[in-house]
Amino acid sequence: MSSILATIGSNIKFHRKKLRLSQEQLADLADLHRTYVGSVERGERNISALNIEKLAAVLGVEPAKLLESKPNQIDDK
Amino acid sequence: MSSILATIGSNIKFHRKKLRLSQEQLADLADLHRTYVGSVERGERNISALNIEKLAAVLGVEPAKLLESKPNQIDDK
Fold first, then answer.
1. Across the strands, what pairs with B48?
2. Which H or E run includes A49?
């Protein structure tokens, strides 16, 4: 798995859980499919810039934030 | 044109010029096609996370940096 895809996936999951959204709710709000959001969170999809932008908008963060590796971030399973 | 694609394109161009690389040199170093890099710089392509990572590695910046909007950045045509 690419480290950038894993980083993006983990950041999306982190911010989604912070907002207490399910994958399905996030997917609906971002106009994406639930299974797609799941695979992005697992770092399995080479997500595009436009989908990063869509998810960031729903999560209320700057798109760049979703690419930042945060070594101290708690891995919230 | 999406603002995120324009931002990424402008950031790539900015860092490429800082390193005095041609589009062709950047493309070769990142193992991408020159015309692809040109269209990304013009904000015409929905670039993927893995290609953002490849270009950032050659440009010597964190991938997240390429998504940041910098209102004060001089538009270096």
1. A48
2. helix A49-59
Rounded CA-CA distance B8/A62 in Å is: 13
| Contact criterion met (CB < 8 Å) for A63 and B4 | yes
Q: Percentages helix, strand, coil for chain B, rounded to the nearest 5?
A: 60, 0, 35
Name beta bridge partners: A48: B48
The per-residue pLDDT for range B6-26, each reduced to its tens digit, is 999 999 999 999 999 999 999
Assembly ipTM: 0.89
The CA distance from B37 to A54, in Å, is: 23
- Domains defined for chain A, CATH in brackets: 3-61 (1.10.260.40)
When CB atoms are compared, the residue of B46, B62, B64 closest to A48 is: B46
DSSP A48: B
As a whole number of angstroms, the distance between CA A61 and CA B48 comes to 19
Interatomic CA distance for residues B37 and B55, integer angstroms:
9
A67 interaction partners in chain B (CB closer than 8 Å): 49, 52, 62-64, 67
Query: What whole-number distance in Å separates Cα of residue A35 and Cα of residue A39?
Result: 6
